[in-house]
Write the structure tokens for this entry.
Amino acid sequence: MRISTRAVQLSPAAAYYIALFLIPLLLLAAYSFYSVESFEPVAKLTFHNYVEAATSDIYRGFYLRTLRVALVVAVLVTAISFPFAFVLNYLLPGRKHLLYFLVLVSLFGGYIVRVYAWRNIMGREGVINQTLIGTGVIDSPMTLFLNSEWAVVVALVNYLIPFGVLPIYAAMQNVPPTQIEAAQDLGGSRWRAATKVVLPLTSKGCVAAFAVSFIATSAEWVTPQLLGGTGDQLIGNQIQHQFGGGLNWPLGAALALTMVVLVVLLLSAAYLVIRRWLR
Amino acid sequence: MSTPSMPRSTKVMARLYVVAVLAFLFAPLVVVVLFSFHSAPRMSFPFEGFSLRWYDQVLHDQLVIDAMRRSAIAAVLTGLMTAVLGLTASLALVGARTRVRATTMVAAMVPLTFPTLLYAIGLAITYHFFGIGYSLRATIAGHVIVALPFVFLIIGASLDRFRFSLLEAAFDLGASPWLAFRKVTLPLILPAVLGATVLAMALSADEFVVAFFTAGQEKTLPLLLYARINQGLDPSLNAIGTILLVATTSLAWVSAARTSKENQ
């Protein structure tokens, strides 16, 4: 009786997840095996899309660049977020709630606005160039900021830092301060306390920060489109293209799922290595 | 790690680091807000003066008004739907065994592990497959999935602190299940549900990728901003960006304030 009530109470959410999450993913997987005839996906099953995703030199270039950018972004986000969360939690305990609150709020504010802002700041007619010209530091606009891989990395790191701080900070809430005091009483420096005690105890949070940034970057297409040059486009741009002007949905679906498989394999391998290393 | 034992230089360095990271986080947002009030059409320093001309221009632009209205509708409906789904599911989870609750929570988190692009194209394919046209309604249905994991996260954290002894006491005193729900369960989980609802609204108002693939011609505010960025930079975009930013961050602020107050 009690269990059936529970099942009834859970069923609306469960039904919603099945209809609008599970089915879309299954259809995406199904479409990746479809063929295309006169720009329309047709249910003639083929491995051709995956063969193209795996063997084409063009896509290999996009995958490698995407994985490189994702790695750089994830490393930077984790490397910036860990000390930030550490300082917040252990060195500024009086203000930690307010500062954490600020990070939390910035997490949910302005995905597209941020990309626009960076374009505005770094562009030819952007804030940096205009200000430098206006104050007479340079004569003509510099073009090294916008349309570069660095612009893409800076914008993504900026957007993802809150996603990095959150899990690490949460993990630190479970580390008893007595453990750190013990490490210091035994003669360890603050730096050693941070690396030898807090880092291993919060490794799950750090892994989450790294993984979230890596996964988010792996499917990013707006940031490279608006801030990167033609040579800085990522696999997400190719996927988006197949659903837009390219009109090859099955290939787009196969490209997307190949990326997911690559990301899962790489993250699992990295996790195993890090777990060994932390032991 | 007591404060007095800490060297002064360490504390100064720590403060500088926090300030630097926060400055980096908020720099792009500050630039957008600041230049939305610039009286000159240039986006550069020195700042010439304040003016509301870009807001005046934007608020007389029917396309912007339409997009704002759609975003507001999407936010409210996403909030309502996630509230209903989250509340009914949380009733099942109150008093459920820890294993059942943990499994349900993990299942509810699964969408978070997929990049939004993947989900968005899957959803676009699904609508195409069933012959459903792209529209604002189609986007809202997707926004609910984007927001639900966060809603469950907040409600789940609240359930972890739920004092079941209160519910048992109510039953011991002869309360009916309905009375116990109304007088005990609901007041205890309502702050979390409300906080989660407001958060879902913020997520919907800010969401771009799902909307891009499923909204069709019914462009929300982020989509309109994107379309205009592609047409070229124009100072009025700062005003659109600021309006969007104020909407999402104030909702996030309200939600964070609600849920963090409850945490203490």
About this structure: DSSP finds eleven helices and no strands in chain B. Chain B has a mean pLDDT of 86. Residues 36 and 239 of chain B are 5 Å apart (CA to CA). Chain B has one domain: 58-263.
